[in-house]
User: What shape does this take?
Amino acid sequence: MTTMELNAELFHQLSYLADDETYMQKVMAFIKNLVIQKTQQENMEYITKDELLNGIKSGLQDVKQMNLSEAKTLQDVINEL
Assistant: This one.
């Protein structure tokens, strides 16, 4: 369906509910929730592939630079418990 057809169908269906305030309030609440969801999706910030890969690379470099002599063995951790 095209946007115009969907718009026409929406108003056609709303005409069945137009005389009932309770149902119209429910429709309005639902539509407001849809608008909020759409706005949130549009405002989401996405991390780029390069940013993700740079973060992983940085983390790996940190691990490599860690002094292994200071690292605890599993047995040391168990003994501390």
